[in-house]
Write a structure and sequence with these properties.
The protein has ten helices and 15 strands. With 270 residues, the chain is α/β, with parallel strands linked by helices. A seven-stranded parallel β-sheet has the order 6-5-4-9-12-14-15, sandwiched between helices. A three-stranded antiparallel β-sheet has the order 1-3-2. Strands 10-11-13 form a three-stranded antiparallel β-sheet, covered by helices on one side. Helix 1 crosses helix 5 (72-80) and helix 2 (22-29) packs across helix 3. The relative contact order is 0.12.
Length: 270
């Protein structure tokens, strides 16, 4: 992860939480303890916080409000993608094992599907995505072919959402669609925003198989819009911390359920 990306993630987390330990910085950005300390020092020098023993603390008063306002547009995606990051990485790594060279796939925007980026560095795939951070990474860092739908930019979710039925993706045909969502329940894949739910439904119609990427937090009740029923899911990849009753629900519905075991990063004393 580049320094600019690390700084943006840490800024958003700091605005949301007020204090970050060195271990928090390591978990959020995937760097060593030494690099995390350097990042904390640079942020303090730039005025984004105060370096304290064991981490960095947000400044109080008007500056904190200004920093929170500056990061408002990116906080939803950037902060969410740091939560349960090792599980999301393990899920994403397993998802890529389902692909072969020259595959045509769809990757829906989301914090878990975004973790697939790192594992796409050396692949040769044709990828349609509505995630513009993922598209930017793929174009800059890989040799994969990339297609984007037309539409409006949703800044908080970092998505491109097409409001019309008649757009370029109606001519796309993919073997697999990889999707993350805000919730998975007995009724299926759940979203909260009607335009996002509609966009996902349109993408889903262009794929033969649906693979859902869901860490353990996605089995809490959230959202109210069903994107697709459980019967439409070919496979769901989750982590060992997923609730037992959720795994039973999926298997009872005939969903192939793959459980991965995240490997925590080694940490150094701060």
């Amino acid at each position: 992860m580049r320094e600019r990306q690390r700084v943006e993630i840490v800024r958003n987390l700091l605005a949301a939480q007020g204090f970050l330990s060195i271990a928090d910085l390591m978990a959020a950005t995937g760097v060593s303890a030494a690099s995390a300390r350097r990042d904390a020092g640079r942020l303090a020098e730039a005025g984004y916080g105060e370096r304290v023993y064991g981490g960095i603390q947000a400044l109080g008063g008007a500056f904190s409000r200004r920093m929170a306002q500056a990061s408002l547009e990116t906080q939803a995606f950037d902060v969410s993608r740091t939560i349960n990051i090792e599980a999301k990485r393990a899920i994403a790594r397993r998802a890529l094992e389902m692909c072969v060279d020259n595959d045509v796939i769809i990757i829906n925007g989301g914090t878990t599907t975004f973790q697939m980026a790192e594992f796409l560095r050396n692949t040769r795939l044709k990828i349609l995505t509505n995630s513009y951070p993922l598209a930017e990474f793929l174009i800059r860092e890989t040799q994969n072919r990339v297609a984007l739908p037309g539409g409006e930019v949703y800044r908080d979710q970092k998505l491109i959402v097409a409001p019309f039925d008649d757009d370029a993706i109606q001519h796309y045909s993919a073997r697999i669609m990889f999707m993350s969502a805000i919730s998975i329940g007995p009724l299926g894949v759940i979203e909260g925003d009607p335009l996002i739910a509609r966009a996902e439904t349109k993408l889903l119609r262009r794929a033969d198989k649906l693979v859902v990427l869901a860490d353990s937090s996605k089995f809490a009740q959230r959202g109210s819009l069903v994107v697709c029923p459980l019967s439409r899911i070919h496979a769901l990849i989750t982590e060992e911390a997923a609730p037992v009753e959720a795994l039973a629900m999926l298997r009872d519905a005939g969903v192939e359920t793959i459980v991965v075991h995240p490997e925590p990063r080694a940490t150094e004393a701060a």
